[in-house]
Specification:
245 residues, Rossmann fold, 11 helices, disordered C terminus
Length: 245
């Protein structure tokens, strides 16, 4: 078991984002999160990545509850940060280093990896994502598709066990979206992956589908549920997809 949530709730000052969510995610499972805007999807991803903490209930990683106190412990924090990687919907939120090379090298540097290992890991990611020619460029000057590839490379450079993706194809043009789809199966092979998507071509790759509505899980299913879910939530999917064009 990788993650376990028990009656998980989270409240912002103005509204409740999650209300009593319970679920378990196993090793190497690919889970697609579906739901309209404001359903709590992105908040759940932030809780899973330890960027915020439950208002009530709990969420655990490999049996250890994710709390501020737990992540203040150096040994657990290092293991968790090396094991779990989050790619934000908007790469501009994630990218802050002066060059692409520095961006990808940032996480290995925080883990105090030897210089030679860092150079090898960064070189591997540059080649894997076809961005070696961008290594000296400033991330904020790249195209949307290039930024997304750099964000993915910086998340995967430590070879995490868990990959969390918030709308991996949001705001991409057709060519960049196709490239992300092509790489998706490769990126998540052998990993636990949890991702938000409104694209059925991506959702089909999931082992499990979870639908959130007003901060609660209202439906769960697998491949066999896909046609039924698509029919029931067709209006939501059409609306969400249109908002990213």
């Amino acid at each position: 078991m990788i993650f376990e949530a028990r009656s998980l709730s989270f409240r912002y000052a103005e509204a409740e984002a999650l209300a009593g969510v319970s679920f378990v995610v196993e090793e190497r499972q690919r889970v697609a999160l579906l739901g309209a805007n404001g359903s709590g999807k992105s908040t759940l991803l932030r809780l899973l990545d330890g960027l915020c903490f439950a208002s009530a209930g709990s969420i655990s990683f490999q049996g250890r509850e994710l709390t501020e106190e737990a992540l203040a412990e150096e040994e657990f924090a290092r293991r968790f940060r090396r094991s779990v990687a989050l790619v934000f919907q908007n790469p501009d939120v994630q990218l802050f280093n002066p060059t692409v090379y520095d961006e990808i090298a940032f996480a290995p540097l925080q883990m105090n990896m030897p210089k030679e290992e860092i150079q090898a890991a960064v070189g591997s990611m540059l080649d894997r994502f076809g961005i070696a020619h961008l290594k000296d460029r400033a991330p904020h000057r790249l195209s949307g598709g290039e930024k997304k590839r750099v964000a993915l490379a910086s998340a995967l450079v430590l070879d995490p066990e868990v990959l969390i993706l918030d709308e991996p194809t949001a705001a991409l043009d057709a060519r960049s979206e196709f490239e992300v789809f092509q790489r998706f199966a490769e990126l998540t092979a052998g990993k636990m992956a949890l991702f938000i998507s409104h694209r059925f071509s991506t959702v089909r790759m999931a082992d499990r589908i979870v639908v959130l509505e007003k901060g609660q899980i209202v439906e769960e299913g697998n491949h066999d549920s896909l046609t039924r879910l698509r029919g029931r939530y067709a209006e939501m999917f059409e609306m969400q997809a249109a908002s990213y064009r």
